[in-house]
Amino acid sequence: MVQSVKVWFDPEADFLEVQFSDAPGFMRETNHDAVMERIDENGNILGFSVLGVSRHSKECPLEAELKA
After folding, report:
1. Which residues pair with 15 in a beta bridge?
2. Domain boundaries defined on the chain
3. Which pTM does this prediction carry?
4. Tens digits of per-residue pLDDT, 27-60?
5. What gap in Å lies between CA 58 and CA 66, rounded to an integer?
6. Residue 61 DSSP SS3
7. How many whole angstroms separate alpha carbon 23 and alpha carbon 31?
């Protein structure tokens, strides 16, 4: 089965968004203040967003838990 992922990056806002599905959903906080997860009404993960992408480096990668 082929699955597609949509990725948007806005360099001016330093914002990254990844969508696994176009289904309706809403944003929910994660354990990391820069990461929000996008979920549907049943709690299934539809994607995530990262604010302040450029402040994270290879030496100190961003790590967040997405709760399905």
Report:
1. 10, 51
2. 6-55
3. 0.85
4. 999 999 999 999 999 999 999 999 998 887 777 7
5. 21
6. coil
7. 24
